[in-house]
Amino acid sequence: MPQKAAPPEPGTPAYFRMARRKAVRMGLSPSSGQEAAKMLEERGFDVTRDRVTMLDTTSASPNPPPGGKGAKSGAKAPNASPDVISDEERRADILKIQKSMARRRQARFFLISLRLFFFVVLPTYLAGNYFYNVATPMYQVDSQMVIQKPDGGGAGAIGGLLGGSGLTNLEDSVIVQGFLGSREAMLRLNSENGFIAHFQQDFIDEIQRLPADSSMEDAFSKYEKYVKIGYDPTEGVIRMSVIAITPEKATEFSRALIQFAEERVDQLAAPLRNDQLTGATENYNEAEQAVLDAANVVLELQQTRGIFSADAEITGQMGILNGLEASLEQKRLDLAEINSNAQPNRAQVNAIEQDIKGLTERIAERRASMISSGTENASLARVSGELRIAQSNLEMRQMLLQQSLSSLEAARMEVNRQTRYLSLAVAPIPPDVPTHPKALENTLLALALFFGLYIFISLTVTILREQIGS
Question: What is the DSSP letter of 407?
Answer without folding.
Answer: H
